[in-house]
Amino acid sequence: MQPTQNVLIPEVIQQIPLTYYIIISTALFVIGIIGVLTRRNAIIIFMSIELMLNAVNLLLIAFSSYRSDSSGQVFVFFIMAVAAAEVSVGLAIIVMIYRNTRSIDVGLLNKLKW
Amino acid sequence: MSEFLNQFKQLTATGYLFWVLAILALLSAVWVVTARNPIHSVLALIATFFCLSGHYILLNAQFLAAVNIIVYAGAIMVLFLFTIMFLNLRREDEESKTNLTKMAAVVVGGLLMVMLITIFRAKSAQVPTFNPVSFDSRTGLVENLGSILYSDYILPFELASVLFLVAMVGAVMLGKREAGDRHF
């Protein structure tokens, strides 16, 4: 490893193993899953889904930076675009549910289970 | 454990910044899930996004750090906040799930996390590290990403615009008042 080349590599990549990013992303993803399972407020369930998407984004960017492969970052860009479209439609659905039931408690929609 | 502590002592300021950002991101993610007031959840989620943008800058992905703040913290969270205020959800009428359900959910999540981490830390998993010879620090810069986005990924890029059009039409259709709707 020549010192001149070493300067160009970001310090985080030199000091932090990729495994730590995997563990952080896993923790974020699991927090999102717990949020979906424990809350009944539809908007908070939606925000937990955003947390899970962001955990995946972090992992993709970490791998892409460590391996110097731009495709991962382009993929994250598309995930963000799809998340924006998903949020606009999902919030419209939540507003419509509220208009019909005066509540956004997902427990009231239990007929969707069967 | 002592190996980990030795590694921790050798970190520079950037290494400590990584840990601070990681812990802040996880704490605010927990706050998103546990907050009683939905507006606090939104604020915590914005904090999480800023911490993740900090991670992206540390990883030299400046373009995505900017896009993350503009799209997520700027556009998507404003949409969430707007919906919460529009629906006037400040009163806490959410009867929460039973403690048994909550405990079961946390146990399921914890087991999943233990399982995933065991898989990733397995000897045969072979998590790759950086290659000092072929490393390119310009991977995440706008110039590089833009040329790839407009050459290799031009078709998905164009299809994304169709997706946005469909999402816009869908949101307008869903938000429109129908004849049989209850008015309030």
TrEMBL record, chain A:
Main location: membrane
Positions of transmembrane segments: 18-37, 44-63, 75-98
Assigned EC number: 7.1.1.-
Reactions mediated catalytically: a quinone + NADH + 5 H(+)(in) = a quinol + NAD(+) + 4 H(+)(out)
Membrane topology field: Multi-pass membrane protein
Family: Belongs to the complex I subunit 4L family.
Subunit structure: NDH-1 is composed of 14 different subunits. Subunits NuoA, H, J, K, L, M, N constitute the membrane sector of the complex.
Protein role: NDH-1 shuttles electrons from NADH, via FMN and iron-sulfur (Fe-S) centers, to quinones in the respiratory chain. The immediate electron acceptor for the enzyme in this species is believed to be ubiquinone. Couples the redox reaction to proton translocation (for every two electrons transferred, four hydrogen ions are translocated across the cytoplasmic membrane), and thus conserves the redox energy in a proton gradient. NDH-1 shuttles electrons from NADH, via FMN and iron-sulfur (Fe-S) centers, to quinones in the respiratory chain. The immediate electron acceptor for the enzyme in this species is believed to be a menaquinone. Couples the redox reaction to proton translocation (for every two electrons transferred, four hydrogen ions are translocated across the cytoplasmic membrane), and thus conserves the redox energy in a proton gradient.
Protein name: NADH-quinone oxidoreductase subunit K
Protein source organism: Fibrisoma montanum
TrEMBL record, chain B:
Lineage, opening ranks: Bacteria, Pseudomonadati, Bacteroidota, Cytophagia, Cytophagales
Gene3D superfamilies reported for this sequence: NADH-ubiquinone/plastoquinone oxidoreductase chain 6, subunit NuoJ
Chief location category: membrane
EC class of the enzyme, as a word: translocase
UniProt entry tagged with the keyword Endoplasmic reticulum: no
This protein's name: NADH-quinone oxidoreductase subunit J
Residues passing through the membrane, by range: 16-35, 42-59, 65-88, 100-120, 153-174
InterPro entries assigned: NADH_UbQ/plastoQ_OxRdtase_su6, Nuo/plastoQ_OxRdtase_6_NuoJ
GO cellular component term, pick one: plasma membrane
Reactions performed catalytically: a quinone + NADH + 5 H(+)(in) = a quinol + NAD(+) + 4 H(+)(out)
Compartments in which it is found: Cell membrane
Topology relative to the membrane: Multi-pass membrane protein
